[in-house]
Amino acid sequence: MIKINRRDTLCLLGMAAIAPASASGQSTPPLRLKGRIRQSCVRGILGKMPIDEFCRTLQSLGILGVDLVGQSDWPAIKEHGLSATMVPGAGGIKDGLNNRAKQEQWLNDFRSNIPAAAKFGWKRVITMAGDREGISDADGMTNCAEVLKEAVKIAADHDVTICMELLNSKVNHPGYMCDKTAWGVELCKRVDSPNFKLLYDIYHMQIMEGDIIRTINDNIQFIDHFHTAGNPGRKDLDEDQELFYPAIMRTIAKLMEDEKFKGYVAHEFSPKKGVDSLRNAVRLCDV
Known about the structure:
The protein is an alpha/beta fold. The chain has one domain: TIM Barrel (Alpha-Beta Barrel). It contains ten helices and eight strands. The chain has an eight-stranded parallel beta barrel with strand order 1-2-3-4-5-6-7-8, surrounded by five helices. β4, α5 and β5 form a beta-alpha-beta unit. α4 packs parallel to α5, α5 crosses α6 and α8 packs parallel to α9. It is globular.
């Protein structure tokens, strides 16, 4: 069973200083969750909401952490008893680790960002493969592996995991190289370190591959983090989209209970109704 510490328990019970208002303007009570899934969300999901208000809102929803959040917000996140569940590592979507000419720059970024994350107690940094831009998938994998084999040494020294995100190249990110689970898994095998795994984005992989539950079960040893969104549209996890999140979350919850997965499920979608949309996603994923 996954051990939940005191801070997690307080968040799960929704013991926030104030409860956020619903779309109708009425104050809503904090959520009481089962907590089998450790839920997080990206910093930008509620627009430009001030960080303290944002953190209080997450606490009231039982959300334990914040994804894709810069260093300027880290002190507030820590002060509110939340975790930064995915923070900057190295490389971007367009220009990433497959660019061999920038290997030293990527390593310098890892040398700076991994210790910074560890100092706050954050456990995961993100990286991207980059666009193909004339680079073959084979050469790109070799280039990524060369950087990562050095970077994981830094990560291991600081008890941090580097996560490469799987993105779709069909709709949102044409040309992105790490667009198939098999490619990412093979890269994990080449790097051969527990400090390098995949960020499996359910929305992106639904577009590229489908067969989500089987793929997660078959490759969980290489996955350390999940992102959610509804497809098509990258919006709410509602009945207007095709993914059945309760079944996916039950799969992840079982993997957590079996201690095959210890990470977070982070919501990364454009909400139709602000906090109400996020609240509905949390409830849906609380299986």
